[in-house]
Amino acid sequence: MKRFFIIPILFISIFFSEITYSQIVLPDVTSPTVEKINILIPPLQSLGSKNKNATKFIEVLRNDLKNAALFNLVPGTTSAIRGENVDYQALFEEGIDYVVAGQYKVTGTNLKIALRVFDVRQERPLGGRTYDASPGKIREAAHRFSNIIMKQLTGIDGFFTSRVVVVVGGRKRDLFIMDYDGFNSGQLSAHDALVMSPNCSRDGRKLVYNSDKVWDQDLYVMNLTPRVRDTKISSTFSLEQSAEWSPDGSRLAFSSNGDIYTSNASGKNLKRLTKGYSIDVSPTWSPDGRQIAFTSDRSGGPQIYVMNAGGGNIRKITSGGYNTDPSWSPNPKVNKIAYVNVTGSVANIFSVNPDGSGIKQLTSGTRRNETPSWTPNGHFISFSSNRNVNSDIYLMYFNGENQVRLTKGGAKRFPTWCKR
User: Fold this and answer.
1) Burial 358-377 (b: 16+ CB within 10 A, else e)
2) Residue 357 phi/psi, 5° resolution?
3) Of 204, 302, 357, 376, which one is least surrounded by beta carbons within 10 A?
4) Are 188 and 200 in contact (CB under 8 A)?
C-alpha cells in the first residue's frame, strides 16, 4: 500500500458529505460468529482552547461501537494522522480497517465538531459530519454519529439514539425512560403499583403496559409525544397483561384471563384467538404481523407456541423444561424468537427459529437472565439480569456475544426500546 495525503479537516474549507453506503463491502452479520471491524478513534484535535466535552464525545462514540459487538476498538492514539496527512500504510500494518478522525473548536458555550471516516484498505475518505452541540447535547451528537458509522460500515441501522423504557422498583414500581446506555433517566408514571411489561410501538410514539393501580391488572396506553399522558384501555375485573403492538401499530395482542386476544390501539374490537383450560400469555408478533408466538401450558409445563395472527394453526416450537416470555425479532432477516428457560432458581435466555429449529442458549450462569427485548434493528437483545446481585439491564448480540451491562443501581426490569 502507498502513503496517501488528504486535505485538512478544517471547518472553513471542507464539505462533509453523506457516507456512501454502496462504497463498502458489508460483513456477514448473520454469521454464527462475527468477524469484527478494527476501528481506530483517536482523540479530537483542538483548534484553539481545549474543552472536556471533546473527550466526552469520543468516550461516548467509542462506548457505542464497543456495545455494538461488531467493532474492535483499537486502543490509543496514532501518529499516522498529522494535520493534512494520513499514512495509510502505517495504519494498514497495525491491522486497522477504518479510522474516525476529527477536530473541534469552542464557539461560545458550544462545541463545533468536524469528523471524517477513512477506509484504510481502500485508502480513501468515506465522508463525515459536523456537529454544533451545546454541553447538554454532546452525548446525543455522539450517538447520532455512531448511528451513521454503524449503518455505513455494517449495513445495520444504529440504535444509539433510541431510548429504553424500564420498570423500576420492587412490589411498588413505576416506568422510567432513559438513553439506551442508561444516562438521562426520567420518570414516566406515578402508579406506585405493580407495573409490568411495557412495550413501545415501532414508531416510538406510544407505550402499552399493565398495572394494578386501580384494582387488578389492566392495560394502559401512554402517549410519549407530544406530551406524556396515559389512558386505561381495558375493562375492570379481568386480568389483562403482557400486551405488544403489532408491527404497523394498529393493533395490540395481549393476554386476558389466560387467553390471547387482539384489539385495535384503543382496546376495542376484541378478537379472541385462543380458548380452553390452558393459560396462554405473553404474545409477540412476527416481523410481518402474520403470526403470533406465545406461552402456553396446554401440554403440561409452559412452552412456546406459534399461531396465525388471526388464530388457528397452533404449533409448539419448544419442549422440555419451563419456557416462557417469548420476544420475536422485528427484523425479518434475523427472524428469531428469544425466550426464557427456567430451571429451578436459574433463568437463561435462548433463541429459536419460528419452526422450532436452531435452539441456541445465549446466556449462562447460576443467576436470572430474563425479559428479553429486541432493539429496533432486530439484531440485538436487551434483558434484565441479577448476575451482579442487583437486577440491571444488559445488551447482547443476537448470537449471545458481547454481553454488556447498560445500567447500574438495580431494580430495573422489562426493557423495551423506543425508536427515535
Assistant:
1) eeeebbeeebbbbbbbbbbb
2) -90, 170
3) 357
4) no
- pLDDT per position in the chain (420 positions), as tens? 333 333 333 333 333 344 443 344 455 656 667 789 999 999 999 998 999 999 999 999 999 999 999 999 998 667 777 656 788 888 898 899 999 999 999 999 999 999 999 999 998 888 899 999 999 999 999 999 999 999 999 999 999 999 999 999 988 999 999 999 999 999 999 898 999 999 999 999 999 999 998 878 899 999 998 778 889 998 767 889 999 999 999 999 999 999 999 999 999 999 999 998 999 999 999 999 999 999 999 999 999 999 999 999 999 999 989 999 999 999 999 999 999 999 999 999 999 999 999 999 999 999 999 999 999 999 999 999 999 988 999 999 999 999 999 999 889 999 999 998
214 Rama sector, left if φ>0, alpha if ψ -120 to 50, beta otherwise: alpha
32 preceded by a cis bond (ω within 30 of 0): no
**Contact between residue 347 and residue 316 where contact means Cβ atoms under 8 Å apart:** no
The pTM assigned to this predicted structure is 0.91
Q: Which amino acid makes up residue 333?
A: K
Domains of the chain plus CATH, in order, are 4-154 (3.40.50.10070), 163-418 (2.120.10.30)
Query: Cell 416450537, residue?
Result: 317
CB atoms < 10 A from the CB of 170, how many?
9
| HEC string for the chain | CCCEECCCCCCCCCCCCCCCHHHCCCCCCCCCCCCCEEEECCCCEECCCCCHHHHHHHHHHHHHHHHCCCEEEECCCCCCEECCEECHHHHHHCCCCEEEEEEEEEECCEEEEEEEEEECCCCEEEEEEEEEECHHHHHHHHHHHHHHHHHHHHCCCCCCCCEEEEEEECCCEEEEEEECCCCCCEECCCCCECCEEEEECCCCCEEEEEECCCCCCEEEEEECCCCCEEEECCCCCCCEEEEEECCCCCEEEEEECCEEEEEECCCCCCEECCCCCCCEEEEEECCCCCEEEEEECCCCCCEEEEEECCCCCCEECCCCCEEEEEEECCCCCCCCEEEEEEECCEEEEEEECCCCCCCEECCCCCCEEEEEEECCCCCEEEEEEEEECEEEEEEEECCCCCCEECCCCCCEEEEEEECC
